Structure formats: structure tokens, C-alpha cells
Amino acid sequence: MSPAEYQELTDYGLRYHVQVVPYLDGPGHIAFILKHPEYAKYPAPSPTATTKCARTNPEAHQVLSGMFQDLVDAKIGGGKFVYLSTDEPYYVGLADNSQCQEKAAAQQEGA
């Protein structure tokens, strides 16, 4: 959804006394995003690689940060809350492929 579409949904909810809470569960559990061709290059290799976004890939980080920002912007026009879930950190540091060298970066940081 675009920020304008989020705003339209928020306005609709408020007319009926319903608080819409924008939500994104990332970088994990985003298979619904990674299945699209423009985002297919961002999964992190893990036991469930198709559901997680690579955390140390600068492009992936920028895309996910932009999605989070869209949700924050969407709640400004009448909403009070936004829910940004950032779970499953135990996979951070496991990626080691041409797109993302999390493993090397984690070892360099002493993780």
C-alpha cells in the first residue's frame, strides 16, 4: 500500500471509531514480500530462507527501512500507533553468500 492508501484506510477506520494499527513483521516472516520479483533478491539464507530478509545487505536494509517508514508515516494522519515487529534475531550472522556476508561481518564484530 502507498502512504496515501494507508491514510485512506486510517480515515475510514476513524469514521467508525476503529483505530487502524499499521504492522510489518520484518526482517522475518516476510515471505509475502520476498515472493515478488523486485524483492526476491533479498532473502537471508537460513533454515527458512524464503521468509527472512538479509539484514546486512545494504539494499535490503534500505528497502525494509523504507517499508517501516511508510507505516510510520501512515499513522500520522489520525492514527496513534504503529507496530514494527523485529523478531528472530538468532538468524543474524548466518548468511554467507554473494549478496550478503553476514557471517564474516558477525565474526569481525566478535559475535
How would you describe the overall organization of this protein?
The chain is mainly alpha-helical. It has helices at residues 3-15, 31-34, 58-76, 102-109, and strands at residues 23-25, 83-85. The mean pLDDT is 74.
Rg over C-alpha atoms, rounded to the nearest angstrom: 16 Å
Low-confidence stretches: none
Strand arrangement, major sheet? 1-2
Query: Could you state the order of secondary-structure elements as H and E?
Result: HEHHEH
Q: What is the helix tally?
A: 4
Tell me the span between the first and last alpha carbons: 37 Å
- The dominant shape is elongated
Give the helix/strand layout:
Layout: H1 3-15, E1 23-25, H2 31-34, H3 58-76, E2 83-85, H4 102-109
Parallel strand pairs: 1-2
Helix pairs in contact: 1-3
Features:
111 residues; mainly alpha
Would you summarize the structure shown here?
With 111 residues, this protein is mainly alpha-helical. Helices cover 40% and strands 5% of the residues. The chain has a two-stranded parallel sheet with strand order 1-2.
